[in-house]
């Protein structure tokens, strides 16, 4: 089997794509090629994982200036041409679009060549690239049932998540612990709100322990703010072992990108989601609301993220163990432990190959 995975830009696209590639290689002895752009995180993660990467030149069309949109529109025909050449050279059995800048050109080239295609969509609302090809692809693997309406031949597979998240045991009491993070780079709005709410939080939830990943920019300010809490707070620029941090937490305060939402579900952790308000198509808010609708999370808009409100929200949840347990159970019911296997099996089926 020969498979191309196209797209990237952010970890939310690339990390699941790598999990799919690993499963294709393990179950189908697949030869893999990634197609990305020079600006995405795939340039670091894909070669590090041992897979070849080829690049097309294309930019954004959403939430950008008119000048950028015109440049992208100008670059798009050449990107499709370059992707078409890569498809000719690699001769894939299937092209899997994972969203992001490179996904559109590669999937359009595959459709023109009548090569089987599979769209992977981790967000409630598909991104621009997947919406572009939604009605033409051979199949689609989605995270949320609500996303099915955008595609034909769709299956709810979930998002691939490291097995370690599924192996986190339920919390059994002890010191009430909150894990705070805003992605690998941190989230200034969340960092700032946490710093401002610390006095109120200590009053509302005495004995609380906080684990906070700040990112590089806000680390020193946060470290100084938490200093009076001494051993009741741990501040990190970056947490290498996130499943271990999840395991210690009774409650998580975080953004709501697709991978984070999938990790929350896999770990069965109650969450306070603060969606990134400038995410394309407001997809983070829609992801957060999907879990909140099932009782697994609380959503706090960034525009309402003032210190006292955040402190009260955290304290109220920590003081209600039955609600935390119910949220945890609701989150676990939304998890998909076999996502990578199921997506790989879909890819094999649309390619017309025997399923393992």
Which bin fits the share of residues in helices?
40-55%
For the record, the count of structural domains works out to 2
Overall mean confidence score, pLDDT: 90
Order of helices and strands: EHEHEHEHEHEEHEHEHEHEHEHEHHH
Shape: elongated
Compact overview of the structure:
The chain has 14 helices and 13 strands.
Task: Provide structural commentary.
There is one protein chain. By secondary structure, this protein is of the alpha/beta class. It folds into two domains: 2-161 and 337-350, Rossmann fold (3-Layer(aba) Sandwich); 164-332, Rossmann fold (3-Layer(aba) Sandwich). 45% of the residues lie in helices and 15% in strands. The protein is built from 14 helices and 13 strands. α10 links the parallel β11 (251-254) and β12. α1 crosses α14 (339-350), α7 (188-204) packs across α12 and α10 (258-267) packs across α13 (321-332). It is elongated and about 65 Å long. The model has no long low-confidence stretch (mean pLDDT 90).
């Amino acid at each position: 089997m020969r498979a191309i995975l196209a797209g990237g830009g952010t970890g939310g696209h690339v990390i699941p794509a790598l999990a799919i590639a690993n499963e294709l290689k393990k179950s189908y002895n697949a030869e893999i090629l990634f197609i990305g752009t020079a600006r995405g995180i795939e340039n670091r993660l894909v070669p590090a994982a041992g897979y070849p990467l080829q690049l097309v030149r294309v930019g954004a069309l959403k939430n950008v200036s008119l000048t950028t949109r015109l440049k992208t529109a100008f670059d798009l025909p050449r990107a499709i041409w370059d992707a078409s050449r890569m498809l000719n050279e690699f001769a894939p059995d299937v092209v899997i679009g994972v969203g992001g800048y490179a996904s559109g050109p590669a999937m359009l080239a595959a459709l023109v060549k009548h090569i089987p295609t599979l769209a992977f969509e981790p967000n409630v609302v598909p991104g621009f690239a997947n919406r572009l090809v939604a009605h033409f692809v051979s199949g689609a693997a989605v995270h949320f049932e609500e996303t099915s309406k955008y595609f034909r031949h769709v299956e709810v597979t979930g998002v691939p998540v490291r097995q370690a998240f599924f192996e986190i045991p339920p919390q059994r009491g002890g010191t009430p612990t909150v894990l705070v993070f805003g992605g690998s780079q941190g989230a200034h709005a969340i960092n700032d709100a946490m710093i401002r709410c610390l006095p109120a939080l200590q009053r509302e939830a005495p004995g609380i322990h906080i684990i906070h990943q700040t990112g590089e920019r806000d680390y020193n300010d946060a470290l100084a703010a938490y200093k009076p809490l001494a051993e009741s707070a741990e501040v990190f620029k970056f947490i290498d072992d996130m499943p271990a941090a999840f395991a210690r937490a009774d409650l998580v305060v975080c953004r709501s990108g697709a991978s984070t939402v999938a990790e929350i579900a896999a770990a069965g952790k109650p969450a306070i989601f603060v969606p990134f308000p400038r995410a394309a198509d407001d997809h983070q808010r829609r992801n957060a609301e999907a879990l909140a609708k099932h009782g697994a999370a609380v959503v706090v808009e960034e525009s309402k993220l003032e210190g006292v409100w955040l402190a009260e929200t955290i304290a109220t949840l920590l003081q209600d163990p039955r609600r935390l347990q119910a949220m945890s159970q609701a989150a676990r019911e939304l998890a998909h432990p076999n996502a990578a296997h199921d997506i790989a099996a879909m890819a094999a089926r649309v390619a017309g190959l025997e399923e393992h």
